[in-house]
Amino acid sequence: MAVTALAARARHAAVVLAALVLAGCGYGSLRDADPTPVAASGPKLSVDEVRIGHLPNVTHATPLVGVRDGFFAKELGGTGVADVVFNAGPSLIEALNANAVDIGWIGPSPIVNGYARAGGVNLRVISGAASGGVRLVVRPEIASAQDLRGRRIASPQLGNTQDVALLTWLAEQGLRVDARSGRGDVSVVRTDNAEMPSAYRTGAIDGAWAPEPTAAKLVAEGGKVLLEESDLWPDGEFATTNVVVSQRFLAEHRDVVAAVLRGSVAANAWINANPGPAKESVNGALRRLTGKALPAEVIDRAWESVEFTDDPLASTLETQAGHAAHVGLIEPPDLRGLYDLSLLNDVLRAAGRPAVTDSGLGAK
């Protein structure tokens, strides 16, 4: 699809989403149940407001905590934050392409797909956020990959990170699936994360390759973990959530991007040092955004499989791009120039921490 067509679709979708989020800032009776995000205070940077996009997932704890607990606001001074929530990564990429969002937390596959489709002129990965936190949860009687024949297994969206991982793993198990239609030995059913538990409950799906907390919700519905995706990766690490920015915004507002990265690094440090309060903060943010907090056993189960890291794990994103090409969703992409980790490494060095690598895929 042409970039202009993507932009047109994204502009409409993102404006509607932003309107829904901003119109619901009070969230009715929830306003008293959970504090609103910390407001801007102090001198403004080069924009009045930065629009941050993310998903309502535990794997996006960094922006959830960053907004709710003021880590971004502290660094941004009088520049405000618009918190725009999406259900899946491809929609967020479309919003970035349409200039409806400035900075986003997102999974690798939509980043790769969006960057490749635009010929490398739209995005930069500027940081990591999370590794892990993805599981294949299935019905208890399913004991192996071969037991999935004839079953319906969900992924969040065509071409999203979990969709690519599921298609890749099924192919490695000798199970044939047409990547586009999802038809084959196993039916891959693209299902919104929020709808997966009810779909499992009613029998519409037999499991899902899903991020947290959706995977933990499926376990709470009686499912079992057949596979931890981290078990498929060397050292158990792979990019689940990265931070991306539009190239235009990065070029014109580096002061704002640097401030957001300082907030992101600080939020991750706090999350890792304070897992109990961090879980409470994430659950409070999810209650504001979705209308319902997670039960303790669900968020505890979800939390145990996620690692919060500023390292974008660039080499694993490159591997995931190869997976997407191998299953036929994209042509082999040229990812040179995708990363600009200069501002992140400035922040890390200032904190006395080592720099992270772009694995040779950095912008010149």
Summarize the structure.
Belongs to the bacterial solute-binding protein SsuA/TauA family. This protein has 364 residues and is an alpha/beta fold.
List strands and helices in order, with pairings.
Elements: H1 3-23, H2 30-33, E1 49-54, H3 61-68, H4 71-76, E2 80-85, H5 89-97, E3 103-106, H6 108-117, E4 123-132, E5 134-138, E6 152-155, H7 161-172, E7 187-190, H8 196-202, E8 207-211, H9 214-220, E9 224-228, E10 239-246, H10 247-252, H11 254-273, H12 275-290, H13 296-303, E11 306-308, H14 314-326, H15 342-350
Parallel strand pairs: 1-2, 1-3, 6-7, 6-8
Antiparallel strand pairs: 3-10, 4-10, 4-11, 5-8, 5-9
Helix pairs in contact: 1-5, 3-11, 3-12, 5-6, 6-14, 7-14, 9-13, 11-12, 11-15
Subcellular location: Cell inner membrane; Periplasm
Family: Belongs to the bacterial solute-binding protein SsuA/TauA family.
Protein name: NitT/TauT family transport system substrate-binding protein
The top-level CATH class of the largest domain is: Alpha Beta
Averaged pLDDT, please? Answer: 89
Taken in chain order, the helices and strands follow as: HHEHHEHEHEEEHEHEHEEHHHHEHH
Classify the oligomer: single chain
Number of domains: 2
What proportion strand? 15-25%
Taken from the alpha-carbon principal axes, the silhouette is globular
Give start-end ranges of low-pLDDT stretches. Answer: 1-33
Strand order of the largest sheet: 2-1-3-10-4-11
Q: Classify the helix fraction into a percent range.
A: 40-55%
Query: What is the assigned CATH homologous superfamily of the largest domain?
Result: Periplasmic binding protein-like II
Number of strands: 11
**End-to-end separation:** 27 Å
CATH fold field value of the largest domain: D-Maltodextrin-Binding Protein, domain 2
Major β-sheet profile:
6 strands, mixed
Query: What is the number of helical segments per DSSP (H or I, 4+ residues)?
Result: 15
